[in-house]
Description:
The protein has 1 helix and 5 strands, in the order αβββββ. By secondary structure, it is of the alpha+beta class. The longest helix is centred in the N-terminal third of the chain and has 9 residues, at 3-11. The radius of gyration is 10 Å and the shape is globular. The N and C termini lie close together (11 Å). The relative contact order is 0.30.
Amino acid sequence: MDAQRAQEICSSTEMANVTCHGEQIYIEHVDQETGKATIHSLNNPNQKQSVDVSSLNEQ
């Protein structure tokens, strides 16, 4: 996924089906300059992590 699409999903009011390394995630924030996204697993919303947007996949 590219940073622009990740930002669109992050800003949307609808929940998108996005995975990171096979796990369903929620995108909290996207830094388009660095290409990083702050995400958390749907199963563990308290465990936030920063990943490259290229590791995100829209289903």
